Amino acid sequence: MNSMLTLRTCSRLPTTLLLLCCLLPLPAFSQQQSAERSWHLGLALGQGERSNPLVGGEDIDIHYVIDFSWYGDRLFFDNGDLGYTLLTARNLSLSALVTLNNERNYYNYLTGQQFGLQSIFDKGFIASIPVAPEAGVPKDELTNSAHTTPEAIYNNQHTELADRDSALNGGFEFLYISPYGDVQAQVLSDVSGTHDGQEAWLSWSHPWYTRNTELSLTLGLEWKSEQLVGYYFGVQPDESFVGRPTYEGAAGTNSFVRLAGRYNVSAHWTVVGMVEREFLSSAISASPIVNADAVDTFFTGLFYQF
Questions:
Q1: How far apart are CA 180 and CA 192, in angstroms?
Q2: What is the pLDDT of residue 36?
Q3: What is the CA radius of gyration of the chain?
Q4: Residue 102 CB burial class (10 angstroms; 0-12, 13-18, ≥19)
């Protein structure tokens, strides 16, 4: 296995939420072993969290991370990506790959029925809601009564969002390694027919080394098409009500900054840490079901390389 493929695991962006170990630098000894075996397996245990931008969404705890990769002559599997290397040189490669979209993970951490009511509170729509008189309630008793509370108004409405499906993406990845930083680009399209959208990645990463430590800074952009944004962050007509209007979404570009570090304790054990902030595009943050303009992720723990 050539050195270019070994570097891919350290420099690439994550494409699945729970396989965050691709954000964490590998111990130095694993790169020395790259010529001896075609697979790598590691496990990190620690404490981490990813914020959930959906209204009523709970933050996602991260207590363990699995890192697994296998490389053949051209075929490879790398932390959720199945790919085939079309072109490789001393400092660059071009690959075709398939991978899962991770946006749907946010829907696993919603609070159910309270989602709809909370979206009204957070978005400030409640003051404009017209209240119709209830049967048997005198008109002069409606003001400031229990009959006009948000809970009473929406007590019989179904406010829970429908779950979104995972999408299988297919496309191309370009990697370029240089002394001035590593560049990664991906162009992907939904090949599963889930939303028929596209996305594209572009990132630059630069590591700094000492004898036992590594610090890596990554800056990046991620463009998402109108179909992708509308499917995962839009509001369908049958999900809308007063206070949560229909939203189709639009194409937009997220940006992010990430800082990752490691300290080699021994040949197999490494202390690792990572913090990241992803700034959401206005096309996402403007959605009635989104109440954040950024997503924060951190993880720190012990990493064991088998």
A1: 37
A2: 62
A3: 23
A4: middle
